[in-house]
Every structure is written in structure tokens, then in C-alpha cells.
Amino acid sequence: MATLTLKSEEAYIDQFGPTLNYTPVGGWDSREPDKMVKTHCCFCGVQCGIQLKVKDNRVIGFEPWEEFPVNRGKLCPKGVKRYMQNEHPDRLKAPLIRSEDGFREGTWEEAYSKTVSEIRRIQQSYGKDSFAFLGGASMTNEKAYLNGKFARIALQTKNIDYNGRLCMVSAGAANKMAFGIDRAANPWSDIPKTDVIILTGTNLAECFPILTDYIWKARDNGAKIIVIDPRITPIGRTADLFLPVRPGRDSALCHGILHVMVKNGWIDEDFISEHTEGWDAVRELVKKYTPEHTEKITGVPAASIIKCAEIWGPAKKSMLLHARGIEHHTKGVENVLSYINLVLSTGRIGQEGSGYGTITGQGNGQGGREHGQRCNQLPGGRDINNPAHRRQVSDFWGINETDLPGEGLTACEIIDAIERGEIKGLLSISFNPLVSIPDTARTRKALEKLEYYGAIDFFLNETARFADVVFAGSLQEEDHGTVTNGEGRCIRLNQSVTPPGDAKLDWEIICELGKRLGQERHFAFTDPGEMFKELTAASKGGPIDYSGMTHERVEREHGLFWPCPAPDHPGTPRLFEGGQFAHADGRAKFHAFEYRPPAEDVDQEYPIFFTTGRVVSQYLSGTQTRRIGSLVDQYPEPLCEMHPILAGKLGIKDRDLVRVATRRGEMTLPAQVVKSIRPDTVFVPYHWSGKKAANQLTNRRLDPISKIPEFKVCACKVEKAGSR
Ligand code: SF4
User: What is the CATH T-level fold of the domain 96-160+410-574, as seen in this structure?
Assistant: First the structure.
């Protein structure tokens, strides 16, 4: 990983040389900026502070922002290039209206009136719930709140969900089940103070690069690092212990580690009896998961399982961090709960240097799931099925509780319902399901069946090509508001430039549609500051309480951790201090789930595990990062990572073309032969579209609780397709 702590781009080139291909076409824009704007990176959930250089209403470069405490001026390869999306020739600058010959530029009046009349027609013909809304977790807290309000009040549909359904929901559901609240337990500043860290299912150094710095600091302070993954990812290469788990076997591995801990008495019985429930069932469950039995299921040598327990069990302080690797499964919630068992059994949570966190993937992965744009959630993290919560929110909005829709379908279920012909209309914002949802062929068929589709975005993403109307929305640097990073810190985004051409701010588009749908008084916002005031007031007394925050405070204090229930409350960086959990009885809950295999396991016909993930230079469905040339140069196309043993068996050499097939489709791509992956597994990154889309192959089966698809494991076959 290259991190940047330098004052200028020239110094960066001096240090790292031209091999990073960092110089933009046309060279550096060395003009004096009109202003420097302190704001944040638009990509991952670390939300590093950055200063954008602005000249003539264009972002022309950046400088580090060293005072911001999360990253202290450091930025990763994506962060230093994030400004290059501004002024890209593909930037949408006016609404697009579908015509017989494709798209034509239209007026805003056309875009709004066509959309409103289609919403009315579809809902009058098929019912309110026949029109769905899909939001995104890269958007601000203000927009997440607005999306939920728009769907419930203006569209009056229950079918609203968001692309975080493909990301953090297994962790969110498990956190609520175990702790009663959905947030990382510790600030990241606790990481360097710990003695041992388990990193499981997280390609940390590529997906959340600046967090790696915290791990290295912990290691410098003497901490042991344990990495669990089917691939020796860059962070795995520096680990004290690496456990190469077979894809889809994570909960079994936890049970095996806990078995050894119980056997050796590395359990905090006092903490368990005073602060938790459900331990007896877990202790009973793990009895049969001896290291040898666990080795047979997981492929991890028994000696490594024992070693892991020996390092983790008796430690004085510990942190457990995980990401999508254990969450993207049909048993993602069970996997997370099994890892939480490892934490609770030691009592090492709610203390400085001891605790637990899930690493959010998207820029506002945390805040995007808090303010009501999920199908089962109302503002303040309230439950849409809880009568008291429904009353609180409907009273706050001044509507009848009976008019507040109930729980709707999740993101993948909405696409399924479109395919079945039950949902006829869709409005989406900052979501690219054609690339990001498994089984692309089915998603494409569903999109073709829509009677009306409106998409709000700043680039014409692959899904938006199916739209009847594309609204030219806004980039992150064109608006202001707040996001909440992966540690639960709400931070301030400042506006650097205004949208180009005839493009509009996302919230202006949503508010205008809300007004035209007859809900003027609910969508009379003139600024995100007004939305934040309403959001924080709506959250008061809820599980996720922002009511003590203002834009000014958030900016002045370099972020505030929720809960922050009063203007003089300092915020809550560390949860669960004193063993007080957020369940009504104050106790954390153990959960005992028997290991079960993936929805689609390997067999004779499809004998190889297929898994997916990210690369450092790309972000999500690539809508932004595939348009930044120097990021494209770093990893121009998807490669199929495979071990030399597997490659040898199949007669494949590095960069040969290989055909990878699952029961849903096939793709042809170059092989990348590496020793850092299990020999029974291939890995393909998912940032590309069309014939290069990994999600042509993945399995759409869902976790029964979180409704997340099983991106991380299915069965495939691989053969050589040609040489290059
Ligand atoms: Fe920081 Fe993440 Fe942006 Fe990299 S991508 S600069 S780690 S916020």
C-alpha cells in the first residue's frame, strides 16, 4: 500500500516514481486554487479527510488534511485520484429521456412530468406497492433520510431498500441480535492499544487501506495479528498466524477455536454470568468441534486452530474485526454471531483496546443504514414493525400511522418481484444492480420488464441504460451534508463545486418529485442543513440518536460518535463500557448456530469454489473508478486468480485465457496464477460489467435474516480457453 503524507503531488511523484502512473493526462494543474475545501474521500467507509483544490468551479487537485484525526493526512491510491472524476466527459449534465433511437437530452420539466405521470399511472393500475425505490449507501445521511421519507410519504410504497443490502446487513442484523445495537463497539484509536487482533474475511489493505496503518501501529506496539481468509491477502502476508479457511466454513472455524478455549479455561465466566445470556447452548454446541473435526470441515490444520486459540484465548486485550468475507453468505448472520461468541466469551469488549467492529465497505455504509432507507427501518434506527416506533415517526411527520407503509421487500427481492411482474415501476439513485446483484442474466430480464424506470446518477451506469428517464444528479463534492464512517463517527462533507451544466443536486430532484406528488409540505427543504435538523430531531429517543448534533458541531469537533442525545453530550466513541449492552435487560446475547454448508457446494460437475471481492484500485460497481484512467491502468480488467497446483492440473499458465462457468453463466478472462489462494478456490473481482462481470456467475440465494446474497461462495468449473 502506498500512503501519502506529503504536501504536494510533485513530492508524491518524487517518492513513488512514475510507475504509479499518477500524473493526469495534460499534467498537473499547478494554478493557484481559488479555495481549498476540507472534506472527505468519496470512496470507502474509512472516510479519510482530504482538502480539495478548487479553481473556476472545478476540482483540480488535493492536499492532505493532517488535522483530521482518522487518517492524519494519509490517503490510499484511490483517495489521491478521487478528484479526477470531476469534469469527466461522461458526466451527465442534463436529464436524458428515452426515445426511439436511444436517449436524447430533455428538459427537467419533461423528466419530472413523465416520471410523476408514470408513478401515478402504475400505482393507480397495480397498487401503491407496485412502484419501488432503491437507494444507495454512498449518499449522505441527509439523503438516506430523505429517500426513506420520500418512499413512505410521496410514493406511499413499502418497497424501498438500498444497495447496502449487498454489503453490511449481515453484520448489522447480527450486531442487533447480539448487542441490541448496530455499530462498531470501539473507535479505531483503540486498535493500536490492543494485544491481539483477529482480522477475518477482510482484505483490509486493499479495501480499507488507511485502516491498515492502525494494524501496523498495533503490531509495532507488540500486538499479534491473526488473519483468516481463503486468500493470503496483503494484510495476511504480514500476519503472525494465517488460517486459510475453505470458503463458506467460517462459523465452523469459530466453533473450533472456541472449543479449544473452553477446554483450556480461557473463558471469562464472571463476565458471562453478569453480562450475557445464552452461553450454555454455545458451550454445548462447540463440544463436538474438536480441532480435528473442524479441520475436516474448514481445511484449516488442527494445529493452526489450536495456535489461534492459544494467542486469542489468554490475551489481556483483543480486537476482532471483520468485513464482507464472512458476511456475504446465506449464513452471513450466523457467521458474524459465531465470531461475536469468540469476543463475548472472553469478556473483552467495552474497554480501551478491547472490542469488536465490522468494517463498513461503502463511503456511508454506516450512516446509510441508519436513517430509514431500509425496507424494515424508520429514522433513528427504529423498527417499522414496532407499533410504538411507527407511532413516534408518524406523529413526527404529521401523518396517520395507518398511512405509514409496513415492511417491504429487500433489494434482491425487489429485483425478483420485478422479474415476476409484481413490481412495475422503479426509481433508483446511486445504485447499479445490473453489475452488483448476483445472476446478471436475471437482473437484465427483470429490468426489461419494467413499465417505467427512472434513474438518478451522475454517470450513465449500466443499469441506467435501461431507464426511461435518467436524472442528472450530483457527485459527492457538489453537495454538502454528513456521513458516518465505519467506527460510528458522523463527519461533515463540505461542498467544493456546484453541479456542471444543467445537472441538479440529488435532494433537489427527490424534493421536486415529492412536491409534484402532492406532498409539498414534507419536501420544502432548501438546504441539507434543514434536512439534518429534521433527521436529528426525528432520531431523538431512538436506538440511533443524533439529536445532540448540528452541522457546526460535527465540523468543529472533527466528527461526533452516536449516540449523542443532547447538545452538551460528548458523543459515544466506545460502546458497552461496564458491560452494559443495548438490549432492554442490558445483557449481550450468545447465539448457538450449528454449522451448515453453503447454498451451493462443490460437486463432481462444478468442483472448484468461486469467490469474489475487490481490488485496491477499484470501488464497488466501478461507476466512478472505471472512469479514472490511472486507476484503470493499475488493474485494467478482471483476472481469475488461481493457485499453481490448480493451474497445473488444468494445464493453465499465467495470463492464459480461462473459461469459468457456474450454473448461472460463464465468463472468459485471463488467469493470474498466484500462490496466495487456496488450491481449491478461484477468485474474480467484481467491479466490471457485461461479459466481464463476476456477478454473471454468483449465486443469488439469500441469508434468511439479512437477505444478503451469497457472493462469497458458489461452485464453478474452470478450463483453458486459449493462450494470449
Ligand atoms: Fe481513505 Fe478509503 Fe478513500 Fe482510501 S478509499 S483514501 S482508505 S476513504
Answer: Rossmann fold (3.40.50)
